[in-house]
Each structure stands twice: as structure tokens, then as C-alpha cells.
Amino acid sequence: MFPTHRPRRLRQHPQLRRMVQETLVTQADLIYPLFAVPGSQVAKEVSSMPGVYQLSIDKIVEEAKEVYDLGIPAIILFGIPDDKDTDATGAWHDCGIVQKATTAVKEAVPDLMVIVDTCLCEYTSHGHCGYLEVGDLSGRVLNDPTLELLKKTAVAQANAGADIIAPSGMMDGFVQAIRAGLDESGFEDMPILSYAAKYASAYYGPFRDAAESAPQFGDRRTYQMDPANGTEALKEIELDIAEGADMLMVKPALAYMDIIWRVKQATNLPVAAYNVSGEYAMVKAAALNGWIDEQKVVMETMTSFKRSGADLILTYHAKDVARWLG
């Protein structure tokens, strides 16, 4: 008779637990989001996201140096322009805030990867991710005219020195359009990290404070995915892969780990999970009230993302995680 297996035998000592640990989080898994604003010496804390700031470009550069020194390989840049209009001019103009921040970071920290959010909502006066039909207050974005703006934006970002283009508007055909625009402009080797499965989520609330991008009317449910749908996410990733995506993102992450798992099982491309603002804010609020152990909760969450299949994690906790990992 074989002896009874006792799983607890492998849990008796910290080093033994470490030896048999199945999932490992490292600094190389992390991507840190940053919000660029005009001005100088600006560091304005986002009220709904303690520890997260809108930063002028000089401060962005300081953050980039710190991030790199912590062993984090990449940042993702979002921009808040001085002026917004219906054509999202700040997104695709050569002197747009993200373009200027990208150039400054690459000059200061050449080996830090700069990912750029390629979307229009921060730059439109109405807060939606593209062109709207005149007089339409439903928030229904015109798909194909928006693709032309996204192409211009991606090329401008690439010209500024971006390392990875990350389109997030969930327009039909947006990866194909951006790939064509990049290739036509000589950026055939520029990778695309597509927000392939981006849900119309209530978890984005604090981000809209940080990026000043809340829709002025309507909502984004005509282009972002229904949280009730899982199979649809697989359809979206199939389309993005066919159009030329090099990496895929699931957003949000915490309530969508089943989607991360399904996406990872369906493709051999790298999969990123975006640990979004609402997820971050809930942890910070509970920690500030003394209700949870912030470090343990954050590290458990990061490990869960990796266990569910994420290769990369975009998170506002990135600097803290890197420090905790040592």
C-alpha cells in the first residue's frame, strides 16, 4: 500500500515553499502608467488615486529614471493637452503632449521602453474615442473616419521615438489601419500592443479623473465590450491577430481573469493585463483605512494575474511591487 500523500509536507518551511512555488512575479513583468500634462514642475495628485500624479514632462523624466532604476522595463504614457477639440488635434500633432514626453524620456533614459496609449478620448472636447455624428448625443463613434485619426496619431508617436504603439479605442479594424500607417511611414518593426479585449467597465472611474477624459454625454458601450461577454473577447483577439497585433491586452484585469486565461489559451502571443484605476483605488482606500495589508494584497493580486496567464501587468502599483521584490 502506497503511503498517503500529504501536501502540507511541502509547506513547512519558507524556503521549501519558495522552491515549489509555481508562479513568480518579477520586475520585468511590470509596466508603469504615467500621465503627462503641460507646464513645468507640475505634480498634481489624482484625488481618487492616492500616490498617482499628473506630471509635467520634466517630472515625467524624473519618474522614468526612477522606474528604470527599479528594474521596471517599460512605462505607458497618457496625455492631457492644453486644449481639446472635435478633431483630437493634441493626439496626432507633432507637438502633442505625449509626443513631447516620449522624446524627452527617450533622450534621458534610452533603454526604458516607452509604450504610448494610442487613443483620442483625452484629446476630444466631448470625451469620446473618435469622431461623432454631428448632433448625435448617444456617443456612437464613427468608425472609419476615426481610423484615419488613429493612423495619424500612431505615426506621430512613432516619429517621437515611441517603442510600442498601444491602440485602446476598440474601433473595428484599428490594428489593421495603424499597422498600415506605420508600415507606410517606415515603421515596419514597430510592435503593436492592442487593447484587444477592453470592456465597458465601471472600474475606469478614477482613470477618467487622472486623464480628464470622462464622456460629456452618452457612454462608451457602443465600442467597448459588454462585461457579460466572454466568447466575444476571443473573436476580438482573432481579428486583432489577423490584422497584425504583436501583443494583446485584457482590460480590466481583476474581474476578468477568466478572460485573461481564455485569451492566453487561444494564442501564443504575449498577453498583458491592465490592473486599472478602480482596482488600484479600492486597494489604496482599504489600506489607508487600515482594513487590509496593502503589500500582501497587492502581491497576491499580481501573482493571480500571472497565474491566470498574463505575461505583462500594467499597474499603478508597479513601483511599490518592484521595491517589495527587492
From TrEMBL:
Its EC number is 4.2.1.24. Transmembrane segments: none annotated. The keyword rRNA-binding does not apply. InterPro entries: ALAD, ALAD_AS, Aldolase_TIM. It is an enzyme of class 4 (lyase). Zn(2+) binds at residues 119, 121, 129. Keywords: Heme biosynthesis, Lyase, Magnesium, Metal-binding, Porphyrin biosynthesis, Zinc. The keyword Lyase applies. It holds the Pfam family ALAD. It comes from the Bacteria. SMART domains: ALAD (SM01004). One of its GO terms (cellular component) is cytosol. The active site is at 198 (schiff-base intermediate with substrate), 251 (schiff-base intermediate with substrate). 5-aminolevulinate 2 binds at residues 277, 316. Mg(2+) binds at residue 236. Pathway: Porphyrin-containing compound metabolism; protoporphyrin-IX biosynthesis; coproporphyrinogen-III from 5-aminolevulinate: step 1/4. One of its GO terms (biological process) is protoporphyrinogen IX biosynthetic process. Homooctamer. Belongs to the ALAD family. Catalyzes an early step in the biosynthesis of tetrapyrroles. Binds two molecules of 5-aminolevulinate per subunit, each at a distinct site, and catalyzes their condensation to form porphobilinogen. PANTHER family: DELTA-AMINOLEVULINIC ACID DEHYDRATASE (PTHR11458). This is Delta-aminolevulinic acid dehydratase. It comes from Phormidium tenue NIES-30.
